[in-house]
Structures are given as structure tokens and as C-alpha cells.
Amino acid sequence: MTRYFIERPIAVIMTFVALICLSVLAWLNRPVSLLPDIDMPEMAIRIDYANASPEAIENNILKPMRESLATMQGLDDLQSTASSENGLIRLRFNYGQRMDLAFVEVNEKIDRLTDQFPADMSRPRVIRVNYTDIPIAKLQLIPKDGDNMIESSRLAENVIKKRIEQIEGISIVDLNGIVNEEIKIIPDLAALERAGIEISSISEAIKSANQELGGVEVKDGQYQYYMRMASRLNNAEDIQEIPVKISENKYLPIKQLATVKTAEGKVFGFHFFNQNRGIVMNIHKQPQAVMTELMPEIEKSIEQFKRDYPSLDISITQDQSVFLKAGINNLQGSLLFGGIFAFVVLFLFMGSFRLPVIMGISLPLSLILSFLFFEIFGLSINIISLSGLALGLGMLIDNAIIVLENISRKRMEGLSLIDACVAGVSEVQGALISSVLTTLAVFVPLIFLSGVSGVLFFDQAVSVGIILSVSLGVSFVLLPLLYRLFFENKANFKKEDSRFFKSIMRGFERSHHWTFKNKSISFLIIVLIIPIGLVAFWNLEQKGLPAITRTDAVLDINWNEPIDVAENARRAQNLIDEVNSTLKYSETDAGIPQYLLSLENAELQQSLIYLEFDSERAKETQLDLLEERLKRSYPRVSFERKNAKNAFDMLFASEEPFFRVQWQDPNLKEADPAAVKQKLKTFPIKDFEPGPSLQEESSMIMNIKQQELLKYGISPEQIISQLQRVLGNYKISELKQFAIITPVMLETNQKAFEDLLSIAKVKNAEGKTYELKNFVSYDWGTRLKKITADVSGTYFSVSLTEDDVENEAAQLLSGINEWATKNALIQKVSGRYFSDQENLNELAFILLISVVLLYFILSAQFESFWQPLIVIFTLPFGIMGSVIVLWIGGSSINIMSAIGMVVMLGIMVNDAILKVDTMNRNVKALEKKDKEGMYEAIFSAGIIRLKPILMTSITTLLALSPVLLSGGLGAELQKPLVLAVMGGLTIGTFTALYFVPLIYFKFIKLKKEN
């Protein structure tokens, strides 16, 4: 087959040119994203119900919804949380569930329950959870006139938002900080008392003056008209002139009885950028959009906005495309340095400029051809698939080097050019195919991991498989053809190695002879790597992601006091003042955010502060000061320091508690904090963190005096209605002008609660007025802040940290069961501890399957049951080499170093397979000649494979080394991977050169003796 391609150069070249053109088209059409487009089997339902307590939301809304949703097919878990004014239901389905159908079913179930929901509650919002929903950037809009929030909100919502959404590739722009306009009616209670009327008189007058006529038609001969009311209200000035009836013949305009003004609507949350109040836009992209092309378009639009709207300060923050750019830069760096070092190494070892040029053609060509298969398999260009390509590049270089070196060696043996190309490829063809299959045997089973890990590894495994398969095709078809074209006009072929390689070979010969003369000492030296590696492993820190220099942080603060959102914002801004000198910028969301895609169960007393510092050192120092200030100034505050969410955090981080104990009390009729705390006194672990269902808040308990109502002839409805008018924002009506709807709200002066009850009056059927306070009583108490529930009903919970559990999980579970039994509770344990244990067991099983597959592939390659064990025996040494170098380099065991070990094992396996394959051929040739001399056959194989093994190892090590000397996000993420590869590959090279021959010699000797 190889001869067929070599003898038809024009056909092969034209075929590759056509494939390259298709690959370029595929590359241009491939979506570019931060993450793969993962259809996560999760969904959330947001409930917003103003002025409702957690109990009201739980009993009236969440409970019937849970009962209805619990029957859904494929539902794995259901959790709900009710808090003041909002509720949240999280649904998790089994992987493989059709989420588009589930989304429709959830909405249908909500529609069926609509009649049971309170009339003044907005429809629950159903949100599909997707890990790619993290915004690609945030746009900050800060009015230069800080008091002009209403006009700025209209501009942001009606103009800027829509213009950004018109950019091709943008899916949605999610806003927070928007302010709506409303007309506020503030009654003068003293004036009302003098006039002898109630607050309700003002609201009734406004309603009467703002009546809709409806669809009345008027015909005038052949003409037809629609009639509208000429008295319809248009603005605050119209409302001021509305007459209110005082007596039979006396009327007063509203402006004499109340203050009428246009102002901001009730605000449940603020957004600040650098302590200036403003509006933020979270920009989300479509899954198929190319992010690297999208961000320049957004930046171009922002520049236009700055020219068109000078009243706004506009800036972009938290640009997530930097992570994708880091991945692309890493790939470009790997390709560039890999090519340069491959050129240098090939020249030093081979003494020819032509071979490096052939390598320089094949590397980018293989990469470009890979994108054609990306199109076929439907892969996007993202961080995961790019990492797969970067991993495959090292092995791609190995294949090319091995083929080129083998062809050159055949030329040195005296074969003609075409015969050398054919023999050079044929000799290593089987070994290279086996090495690719063994690498895939490690990667491919990882896609069977459950959960998001398996979905993510699918992209990586497929991209590695693509580039390795493409590299094989290029190595078997194009490389020998290029070799022929580059060398066919060269009259004299250099039939000896370069001086550089000759000096290396002399050293190898001496060391190889010494190794076989001192087998026991050699074995001992190699085996010592295992205990040293184990010591290093136990001293290495284990974490999900490598330590990255982060200059940003997020403070999640809950003041745990019944303060309003304005006080919440004031405290948050005062806190930022403490560290302002070391900040690049800050963002604050105080109160309840307006984001449509928000899954947080936020509260009015909660602030989320994003801080971008000048340096990591300043960040740590200033955050410690902030924590100290918080503890000192606000004893009841709870806060959490965490990293700002980015693509990697979304992938690997989890908000699930490490170890959670939840229980239900069948005997507890009410959520009494005192009763719950009493049972917690005997909990097996004293140092636990109370769950959301155990947090308390102050509350007011109001009672209506029924006996007084009967005595004075006043109905309970009158009392409730008057309380709503006096104490809360009471909607009277709304003004409609085209698409703009302006609410008309009744609002009292912000006086003390007791004063309002004294001033406000109620009137009985006889027209006599009485103070409102005579008919109500109130008291202060505490209640549970949130109510949590699952399919079985409401529950309480506590969380334990990793330090609390440590290695005593079995004993802890026994203690929890005993505690639950003693207190007659129904308990359940869950958390990351159990999912991690399950994942580790699953990973161990999959790795075992990988080793078995590796054995089967090598058995088929070598046609032997014992020779694959030689290759498998080298793997632990490579892993220990990786661990030792990670320890020396001050890194950790993390996801990136684990990927590095997998890559290293793939390269190690290549070298070992080639070495065993060559030794087998030499031994068979020796047996055919009926000669003794096993050592000479093994030594000859070492000489033959010395050059490709050293070239592949040195090229890979040199190509990776610049990462260790560079800085930035990309380098920090890649450093553990690089250290793992370099450590394992260094040990792996020595095992291929010395350990594999020793073991092979021992196996052959034992086989002959038996």
C-alpha cells in the first residue's frame, strides 16, 4: 500500500490539497466556545412573590408544585428552598433524559397549577441549567448623572440591550440594576383627618378617573370609529388635579390631600461599579457562535455606544474569552516550539536540513486536517477539545520522527530510495498502530464516567483520537512521499550518523554493557523509584484545579439582620472603602438581583461583592482585613470568600456540601427553632455548620383583636386593607402610554411603625373613625429564615467539612444513625464525600478496564501473553517519575497533572512497544540462523531504537520547557501537566533503554529454561 502512494505523488498531493481545503472550511464553520455544549440534566424554577413569608411560599406554592413534579419520568432528585419573597426548585434528571421534552412537561405542570397560585403572584420562571450559561462578558453602564437612573434604565433596556442582541451569535443580554418609573401618592394623614376622609377615598378617586372604556364602536353613516375616554390620565400632573369628594357639595384636588410625584419604583436590589450606582448587562452567546470573533464585535459596539450616549460611562469587565485565548495560545505555543525543537533535534541527530523541513510540513498539516473530523463528529473548538489537540501534538511528533528515522536507517543499510520508504514504514507500521490504540485504550474508557466528567472527556478523547489517527495517516502516506520528493534528486546519501549522535551512542554502549553486567544493582536502582515516588505522593496536596494566580475574589455576605436594601448597599460600599486603594475595580450586587438566568435564592440582606485587586498578595492581605472588620463591626454577619466563577470553576467546582445530614421530624408540626436546637445538642459532631433550614431571622407577629372589631362594628377586611395602605406599597392603578406602563402606588411617609398605627384611622358603618392601633397587637420573635424540602417533604440539615469527616466516615455514620433513632427522626446523608467515593471507585474500575484493553492490544501485536506485561510493568515507574517531579516542582495532584500523566503514559508506551517489537525481530532473525547470542540481539535492538527514543523524548521535553519559564493564566494551568509529562518521560526513557531490555532478557531466559 505504501508503495502505491509513493509511486503516485500527484494523486496523493492533490488529494491532500482537497482535504486541506475542506478542513479550512470546516475550521471556519466550527463554533468556538469556552466549554462543550453540554445538555445538562438539570432545571430550576424561580418563584417571585412580593411580601410573602417563607411559610406562605412553601405551603401555597412549592408544596403543590413538588407533588406535581415528583411524578416526572427520569427525575433523579428534587430540592426546594423557600425564603422571604422568593422560592427555588432544583430538578435533576438522569443522564440521557431528553431535556427539551422535560422542559415542556415542567411548564405544562405549572400551567395546570396556575389557578391554585395567589392571584397577585407572577408566573414561575423555568430555567434550564447549562454549565455554558456563564456570561462571556459583563457590560457596565454608569450614568454620569447619578440621579438619572430612570432614563438610563430605559436607554439600557430599550436600546442598548436590543442592539447588542442584534449581534450575530448573541443569545440573551441579562440585566440587573434596572429602575422602573412609578407615580407615588403620599397621603397627608393630618389633612385627611381634617377633611374627615380615609386614605381609600384617594385611591377610589384615582381609579374612577382612570377608567378604560373598552372596545366601543361608533358608526356615522358609512364611517366607523373607536371611542376612547378623553379623561384618561397621562402623568402626575393629571393625578394632582383629580377631585376627591369631601362632602355633598365640597371637593378638594388630590394635591391638597397628598403629595404626588414621579419617582423610582420600589427597589429590591442595587448594582454598583466602583461604588457608582449603575446597570450591568450579562452577555450570553449562542452555542454555535465563535467567541474569538464575537468579542471584537461587542467591543466595536461599545465604542459606538460611547459616542452615541455620552451621558453614560461604559466599560466591559470579566471577559471570559481570556480562558479560550489561553487555550489557543497554548496550542499555538506547543505547535511553534514543538516544530522549532523538532527541527533542531532532527538536524543534530540526522545531520540533514531536509528532514526537519518535512517535519515542519507534516505537523501543521495534521492539525489542519483534524478540523475536518471535528466537523464530522460535531465537536466545537473549546478548552476541552483544544487540550485534546495539544495532548495529541506530542504523540504526533513522535510518530513522524519514528517514521522518518526508520526510513533514513533503511537508506543507510543500502536500500534504494523507494524501497527504503516502503520498508521504513512497513517495519514500524504495526508498532505505531498499536501505540495509538494503547493510548486510546487509556483515553476512550474515560468517556464512560458518569455525570459531567464523562461528557467532558468525550470531547477530549475524540479530539485525541482524531489527531492521532490523522497523524498515522500522514505518517504512513504523506511522510514517505515527501521523503522521496525531497531526497530523489540528491546524488549522494550520507550513510553514517552525525557526530553528535555518535558521541551519544558511545555513552549508551558503555552504560548498556554495565547494566547487563550488574543486573541486580541495575534492578535495585530502577526499583528505588517506587518508594521515593510513594513518599512524594503522600506529601503532595490533592486538589481539583492547579493553584492559579488569582487577583480577583468574591465576598458573599449576609448581614443576618432585618435591614432594608438601602442599608445593605451602604454597608457594602463602606466595606469597599476599606480596600479601595488596592483595587483595580469592584462590582457589587446588593439585595435581590434582577437577572433572568439567576439561580441564586438571594435575599434583601445579602450582598455579592466582586473585587479585582492589583496583585495576589494585596488580595490576600486586604481580604483578611475585611474579614476582621466584618467580624468586629457586625457580629451576626455570615460571609464566604470564594473565587469568581470562570469556565474551569463551572466545570470542576461543586456547591454541594462535602457531607450533609438532613432529617425530618414526624412529630414537629411547626418549624420551631427552639425544638430543633434542643435535638441538635446531642448531635455526634459538635463543630457543624447549620444548613439553610436552621438559619433564623427576626419577625413581627401581628394579631387582629376580634373582640374589638365586633364591639365597634369594623370588619377584618377593613383592617387588613388599611394596614396594606399604611405600611406597604399599595398599587392603585397604572397609566398606559403606548408600550410604557407606569404604576400608580400609594405610599406612606417612612415614619416609625407605632406612629403610623396611631395616625391611621378606620371608619365603621356609622361613619365614626378610630385609630388603627386599637384593633391590632404585635410582638417580636424569631422564625426560620428558609424552608428546605425534597420529594418526601420539608427537612432540616447540617453540613460537615472535610476535616470533620476525615477517615472516620463509618464511625460518623453509625453515630448519626444512633442519634436519629434516639430522637425519632428520619435521616438521610448525602454530599460530595459520597459522590467522590463513587467517582473514585468508578474511575478505578475504568482504569482497570483500560489496562485490560492495553494488555489485549499488545497481546495481539506481539502474539504473546507475557510480552505485554513488560510494557505494563513500565507504567508504574513513569507515574512515580511524574509524582517525584511534581513534588520537586512544588505542584499538586490535580486534574491537569492527571491529564499529563495520561499523556506521558501514551508516549512511554510508544517507546516500550517499539523496543519490544525490534527485540522480537532480532530474536527471530537469530533463531532462524540457529545462533546463540541473546544479549547481542537485545543490544542491537537498543542501538536501532536509541535514536528515535531519544529524539521523541528530547523533542517533547524541549517543546514543553518554555511553559515552565513563562507566566500568565495559560502557563499556570499547563505547568502541572508539563511537570508530570517531563518527570514521567524522563524516567520512561531510561526504562525503555535499560529496564525493558533487562526484563525482556529475564523473560526469554525463563521461557527457554521451561
Automatic annotation (TrEMBL):
GO cellular component: plasma membrane
Key words of the record: Membrane, Transmembrane, Transmembrane helix
TM ranges: 9-28, 331-350, 357-377, 383-404, 436-458, 464-486, 520-540, 843-862, 869-889, 895-914, 977-1001
Top-level taxonomic group: Bacteria
Single Gene Ontology MF annotation: xenobiotic transmembrane transporter activity
Coiled coil: none
InterPro entries (alphabetical): AcrB_DN_DC_subdom (IPR027463), Acrflvin-R (IPR001036)
Protein name per the record: Efflux RND transporter permease subunit
Natural source organism: Marivirga arenosa
